[in-house]
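Newbie here. two chains, one complex. Structure please?
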Amino acid sequence: MPTFNAKVFVTLKPSILDPQGRTVERALSHLDHANVAGVRVGKYIELTLSGERAEVEAQLADIVENVLSNPVMENARWELEEAREVAGA
Amino acid sequence: MPTFNAKVFVTLKPSILDPQGRTVERALSHLDHANVAGVRVGKYIELTLSGERAEVEAQLADIVENVLSNPVMENARWELEEAREVAGA
């Protein structure tokens, strides 16, 4: 059964305040990085799924929408790629 | 002065335990997603920097290494791309 590596990116929607990002931005500005703006802190989740591609894609879409993100406040996108087999010597 | 959009991905090193990821994994297994494994939860940070490309690259490398990640426990990588100008009508 093939194995897939998934990468999930969860970001706050642009209209939602991001206090963590603001704090990072302020800290950076005190560290002489005043040219940095628009800091937004989101989540990056890696996971591995086994199964056939079509099923895994549907399953991942469900997981991202219903478990890993809150669609009211967050946007999420994901990438899926088949894990490479260990090549023979 | 050009503006650049940066994306930063911070992940725990593979040898570091990830309780948050384990919790997500257990929750998924209770939700009939038993084929999911290796869940690791990291950070995804977006920021905008203005300046010349060479300076911005050096600055971002410094920020990622010293502010946004803890090199003892975390790996970090980043992508930088120039923000597109708003095209004239």
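Moderator note: Chain A has a mean pLDDT of 93. Residues 3-82 of chain A form a domain with the Mth169; Chain: A , fold (CATH 3.30.1280.10). Thread marked as resolved.
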